[in-house]
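Shipment paperwork, digital attachment
Item: protein structure file
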Amino acid sequence: MSQNTPPLPASALDQLFRTARTHNELKGEVSDETLRELYDLAKWGPTSANMSPLRLVFVKSAEAKAKLAPALDEGNHAKTMAAPVTAIVAHDLAFYEKLPYLFPHTDARGWFEGKPEADLTTIALRNGSLQGAYVLMAARALGLDTGPMSGFNNALVDETFFAGTKIKSNFLINLGHGDTAKLFPRSPRLSFDEAARIL
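Attachment content:
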């Protein structure tokens, strides 16, 4: 960030952080154009060597929802089926294949190709999770409410949506428009002194 870049106004910080909430009930419409805009914002967040392992499937059609439904835990089924869109946030263990394009300054592909799958999983999961958080914040920035969750059968999702690839699911995000009147009171957060130190 440039030294001359001003901080965002309080209203923007509220929308992104302070008053934004996780919603269990999401309705309304989310256009394909909004989903493309969401990705086009989230993709700019930093990752190691610009590896960008995030892969997304936006589950929107009735057909796609029917494929996702069997993988959902009982407690997540109804709200996910009712949400306008569910994003499957995943990461590609073969992310290094894109590095000649994404990081052309050097042979970054050689840093990762041939590594054990356990090492690639750690790297891709870490950076893909970062990108999943960028997706959440981009959604909020565009005026969408979000419902991130685990509580599903990852293996079944991978078999259904990513068969024949090295892409692995991480978590889900329901997207749409929520009703703040239906939210529980907000849970507390740790204070700075409980969670952080300045050395």
